[in-house]
User: Which sequence fits this backbone?
């Protein structure tokens, strides 16, 4: 492989590999993720059967250097466990360096991770094979204007509520109301209705609460459960539900605003709202 | 004893001990040809403050014991004020008996006895296997970087690939390379030391030439358990595509004798040969 300075479609230096590792671990419930280098930053997207989408947003501020040669770099897939192992190798266990260079030459070329630790006299390079990306299904978008209910809740509370759910349950239900209790979360499944959590409007769990009209929604337990890892790193969570019942969970992280996660979950088909 | 047992833990279910009047050799259980071969040779004074051995076989005794059992008992003995070990026979079963004296905070002592079943081995069988075989002259031999950094990379490599290639040259460089469908990884350590080997003079022009050996990632991870020995130096010697050996030098500095004189300990040496695989 020629190693001069070819025109790379993307090249950047991540300031904190540890941050990236934590984010990747949060979406590790699928084998592959789609990498996209946008103007504002990098995203990693995983989809489950077009029913659920999880996106890690890494703003360009997380990079010491963020250079794109073109405006439309085609997204590509990578194997997530492989990416995570390589990132971990780059992480600051060997020496204190927490930075790492990321480069991508273009379609068909591997995603390159590079680390040069002058102090430890160690240089590591990982080439991660690009896989074909599924062009559909990245478009599970939620339009802000259609929001019917919106809650901003402190992460610890949501973590407790989701953590309380019986692991045997099939569905997680959310009941929104214009009067107290304004929000009820409960699980149901083989063991019947379990773990009921209720919130009043004035609850200290809430940073904000909006309910234009009452509504009851059901989501697959496995989808809700996949947010738990991300919640561990979160400060605040915003839940938005639109007129179609699509739930959008936006997770803000403790300690930084330069990266965040967003989960979009379609409601279960049955049971009328 | 515990450190040695822990270093051997992942290298085979049983551990063979060859005890002579001045040294003890620990050997892992391994197939004649396959798998990792490891020998840990230590001076008797490193492990024991009193040592008496007598046998009809040139005062040498050989036996095998389950490594896990050895670890278990050695762990208890770690806390002991005094430990006595002796070879006995009970109902026809040879045993390694450990008498461990534990002292509690109040000062009162408690003596517990632990028996490890062992299998005695004959001198005819063990003599040829007792010392590591001499390997043909390596083309490169190099001092490893910190075991911690090797371990960090090897542990991650385990999930990425069943095999990994270790390469080294006489210019202070060591590489670990993985090549799979999903990823290729190249980790290179620079500015390492190449020790001087008696009677071997590397030619100047070939200094930067790398020699390699393809090994099982698991074997490397298991070998790296030798970090329990807290070695001073570890040397890696490679004969291109054929052999790779590690020499681990330890100074197990432990004892203070009853008269408060610290015993000068000889170096303990671990030799480990890893099988080399080809594509």
Assistant:
């Amino acid at each position: 492989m020629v190693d001069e300075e070819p025109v790379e479609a993307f090249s950047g230096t991540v300031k904190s590999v540890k941050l990236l590792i934590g984010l990747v671990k949060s979406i590790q419930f699928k084998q592959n993720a789609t990498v996209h280098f946008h103007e504002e930053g990098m995203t990693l997207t995983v989809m489950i059967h077009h029913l659920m989408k999880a996106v890690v947003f890494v703003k360009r501020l997380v990079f010491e250097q963020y250079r794109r040669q073109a405006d439309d770099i085609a997204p590509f897939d990578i194997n997530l466990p492989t990416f995570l192992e390589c990132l971990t190798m780059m992480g600051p266990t060997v020496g204190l360096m927490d930075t790492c260079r990321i480069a991508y030459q273009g379609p068909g070329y591997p995603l390159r991770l590079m680390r040069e630790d002058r102090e430890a006299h160690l240089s590591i390079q990982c080439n991660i094979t690009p896989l074909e990306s599924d062009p559909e299904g990245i478009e599970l978008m939620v339009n802000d204007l259609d929001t019917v209910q919106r809650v901003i809740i402190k992460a610890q509370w949501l973590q407790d509520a989701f953590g309380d759910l019986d692991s045997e349950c099939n569905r997680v239900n959310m009941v929104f109301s214009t009067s107290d209790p304004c929000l009820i979360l409960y699980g149901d499944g083989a063991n019947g209705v379990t773990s009921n959590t209720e919130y009043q409007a004035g609850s200290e769990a809430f940073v904000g609460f909006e309910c234009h009209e009452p509504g009851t929604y059901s989501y697959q337990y496995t989808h809700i459960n996949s947010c738990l890892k991300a919640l561990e790193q979160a400060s605040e969570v915003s839940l938005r539900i639109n007129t179609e019942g699509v739930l959008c969970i936006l997770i803000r992280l403790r300690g930084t605003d330069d990266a965040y996660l967003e989960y979009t979950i379609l409601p279960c088909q049955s049971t009328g709202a | 004893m515990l450190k040695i047992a822990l270093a051997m833990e992942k290298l085979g279910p049983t551990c063979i001990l060859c005890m002579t009047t001045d040294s003890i050799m620990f050997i892992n259980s391994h197939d004649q040809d396959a798998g990792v071969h490891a020998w840990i040779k230590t001076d008797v004074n490193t492990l024991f403050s009193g040592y008496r051995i007598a046998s009809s076989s040139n005062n040498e005794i050989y036996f095998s014991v389950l490594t896990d059992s050895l670890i278990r008992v050695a762990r208890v003995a770690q806390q002991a004020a005094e430990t006595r070990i002796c070879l006995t026979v009970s109902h026809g079963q040879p045993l390694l008996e450990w008498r461990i004296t534990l002292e509690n905070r109040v000062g009162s002592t408690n003596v517990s006895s632990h028996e490890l079943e062992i299998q005695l081995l004959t001198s005819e069988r063990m003599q040829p296997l007792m010392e590591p075989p001499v390997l043909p002259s390596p083309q490169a031999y190099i001092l490893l970087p910190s075991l911690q950094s090797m371990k960090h990379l090897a542990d991650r490599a385990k999930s990425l690939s069943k095999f990994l290639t270790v390469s080294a040259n006489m210019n202070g460089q060591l590489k670990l390379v993985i090549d799979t469908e999903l990823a290729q990884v190249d980790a290179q350590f620079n500015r390492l030391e190449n020790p001087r080997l008696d009677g071997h003079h590397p030619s100047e022009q070939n200094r930067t030439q790398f020699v390699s050996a393809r090994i099982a990632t698991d074997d490397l991870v298991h070998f790296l358990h030798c970090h329990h020995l807290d070695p001073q130096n570890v040397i890696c010697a490679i004969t291109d595509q054929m052999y790779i050996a590690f020499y681990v030098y330890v100074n197990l500095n432990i004892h203070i004798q009853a008269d408060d004189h610290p015993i000068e300990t000889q170096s303990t040496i671990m030799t480990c040969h890893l099988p080399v695989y080809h594509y």
The interface with chain A takes residues 145, 148-149, 152-153, 156-157, 159-160, 181-192 of chain B (CB under 8 Å). Residues 2-129 of chain B form a domain with the Proliferating Cell Nuclear Antigen fold (CATH 3.70.10.10). Chain B has six helices and 15 strands.
